[in-house]
Automatic annotation (TrEMBL), chain A:
Belongs to the binding-protein-dependent transport system permease family. HisMQ subfamily. It holds the Pfam family BPD_transp_1. Residues 24-221 form the ABC transmembrane type-1 domain. Keywords: Cell membrane, Membrane, Transmembrane, Transmembrane helix, Transport. This is ABC transporter permease subunit. CDD domains: TM_PBP2. GO terms for molecular function: transmembrane transporter activity. The chain crosses the membrane at residues 28-51, 72-91, 103-128, 202-224. It is a multi-pass membrane protein. One of its GO terms (biological process) is amino acid transport. GO terms for cellular component: ATP-binding cassette (ABC) transporter complex.
From TrEMBL, chain B:
GO terms for cellular component: ATP-binding cassette (ABC) transporter complex. PANTHER family: AMINO ACID ABC TRANSPORTER PERMEASE, MEMBRANE COMPONENT OF AMINO ACID ABC TRANSPORTER. InterPro entries: AA_ABC_transptr_permease_3TM, ArtM/GltK/GlnP/TcyL/YhdX-like, MetI-like, MetI-like_sf. It comes from the Bacteria. Keywords: Amino-acid transport, Cell membrane, Membrane, Transmembrane, Transmembrane helix, Transport. One of its GO terms (molecular function) is transmembrane transporter activity. It comes from Silvanigrella paludirubra. The keyword Disulfide bond does not apply. This is Glutamate/aspartate import permease protein GltK. Coiled coil: none annotated. The chain crosses the membrane at residues 30-56, 68-89, 101-119, 201-223. Residues 30-220 form the ABC transmembrane type-1 domain. It is a multi-pass membrane protein. SUPFAM superfamilies: MetI-like (SSF161098).
Length: 237, 233
């Protein structure tokens, strides 16, 4: 260790700083797009898991178990290498015209995260008293409408802290997209390392950025918990 | 579309999926994945328990740095921890460090930080009166922990432990990044060699992981139900 010169200046300016910035932007884009899509799918899966119609419930259950119990990296490889075999040609062409690496990473991250989000939303829905659904049904709302207007708005409000936490996990998990060549933060750190042989500086910088992201997001969760969910300082959930 | 799947690529390479190139080379594949996971699990429980106890220590010179370390690791992606170990361990030991060891180190550090939080929550779930009663009966702090708090707290933690191990088994797949010949690496090698069977190979890979992880997820759910049932009696 004594012979190693730790010199942060090489990554604070010039080409490498630009690479880190590009990586950060890609990480944020990847996480945000996947987060929105995963929320939409997760919400639907959560509702499907709670319906009384058995085939839909079993489908949702299988979906959840499958995506939760396989490693993200395997899912990334599957979509990146294998999707040409299973998707129709026109979709492949369309994805190729976009940015295929990015698209495959978004698909993998979306499916993976949606399974975790669905579980969080489900426990949020279960926390809403059953009488609300009964009251809404007996006022003439259909099941779907009761969910839409009565249950989900309350459940999502309760679920926001775990959802933000899932977003944090998503941002961290997006680092795995480097294995299929998406130029996100970890990928750029690796590039800087191989171009400059400054491994410690490169990974120190990337780690620092990830830790900042994590601490900012945890801070937001704490504030939301204190100000919105527990303004009086007593537990609501 | 022509016939979509041809799973003969799996049966032709089945042995390599399971044990890598074992008799002619190092052990790999599923066997190595399970070994890495098993060693990391044992080490993570030990270190997780220690870190958890240090996080609630009454001595703030211990508690604050340990909590900071735990939060720092939890704020990082596992991939970053693996890369740190990959560069740091050879620099510290002054030479080459085996890749398998790198992955075990990284997984252990990462998982024990998460386990320490489970331990912390499990201990917090034991009513404070028990600690007070035990301390006032003349037991020391460590005796109280060892004989009164931990035996009860640990039982509540078991389902969360099992969930953490499911994550750990999934995380061994990241050994691929530093060239450990575990299951994912072997699959990628077969994929590179056979070229046209990516979907089959990765579906099969997903199924193997799924079977193992789903078994543990089911176990954890069963434990949660049964342990809760016993507590209620």
């Amino acid at each position: 260790m004594s012979s190693y010169q730790f010199d942060l200046s090489i990554i604070t300016n010039g080409k490498f700083a630009q690479m880190l910035l590009d990586g950060l932007i890609t990480t944020i884009q990847l996480s945000s797009v996947s987060c929105v899509l995963a929320f939409i799918i997760g919400l639907n899966i959560a509702v499907m898991r709670l319906t009384s119609f058995t085939p839909i419930r079993i489908f949702a259950q299988c979906y959840l178990e499958f995506f939760r119990n396989t490693p993200l990296i395997v899912q990334l490889f599957f979509w990146y290498f294998g999707s040409f075999q299973i998707l129709p040609t026109f979709i492949n062409d369309w994805l190729n015209n976009l940015n295929f690496e990015f698209a495959a990473a978004v698909i993998a991250l979306t499916f993976y995260t949606s399974a975790f989000i669905a579980e969080d939303i489900r426990s949020g829905i279960l926390a809403i008293p059953k009488e609300q659904m009964e009251a809404s049904r007996s006022s003439g709302f259909s099941y779907i409408r009761s969910m839409h207007y009565i249950i989900l708005p309350q459940a999502v409000r309760l679920t926001i802290p775990p959802l933000i936490n899932q977003f944090l996990n998503l941002a961290k998990n997006s680092s795995m997209a480097m294995v299929i060549g998406v130029g996100e933060l970890t990928y750029q750190a690796r590039q800087i390392e191989s171009q400059s042989f400054k491994s410690f500086e490169a990974f120190f910088a990337a780690t620092f950025i990830y830790v900042c992201i994590s601490f900012i997001i945890s801070g937001i969760i704490n504030i939301y918990d204190k100000k919105v969910l527990n303004p009086m300082g007593k537990g609501t959930h | 579309m022509e016939s979509i799947f041809d799973f003969s690529v799996i049966s032709n390479n089945f042995l390599q999926f399971m044990i890598g190139r074992y008799p002619n080379g190092p052990l790999g594949g599923l066997a190595l994945t399970l070994i890495l996971a098993f060693i990391s699990v044992i080490l993570s429980i030990i270190f997780g328990l220690i870190l958890g106890l240090l996080c609630i220590s009454r001595n703030s010179f211990i508690r604050i740095p340990v909590s900071f370390f735990v939060n720092l690791i939890r704020a990082m992606p596992l991939l970053m921890v693996i890369f740190w170990m990959f560069f740091l361990l050879p620099a510290l030991t002054g030479g080459k460090f085996p890749e398998n060891g790198t992955v075990v180190f990284a997984l252990t550090i990462f998982t024990s930080c998460y386990i320490s939080q489970i331990v912390k929550a499990g201990i917090a779930s034991i009513p404070k009166g028990q600690t007070e009663a035990s301390l006032s009966s003349g037991l020391t702090y460590w005796q109280t922990m060892r004989y009164v708090v931990l035996p009860q707290g640990l039982r509540n933690m078991i389902p969360s432990f099992v969930n953490q191990f499911v994550s750990l088994i999934k995380d061994t797949s990241l050994g691929y990044i530093v060239g450990v010949s575990e299951l994912t690496q072997v699959a990628q090698q077969i994929n590179n060699r056979t070229q046209n069977y990516a979907a089959e190979i990765f579906i099969f890979l997903a199924i193997i992981y799924f079977i193992i992880c789903f078994a543990f997820t089911t176990l954890s759910r069963w434990l949660e139900k049964n342990l809760a049932w016993r507590k209620s009696i």
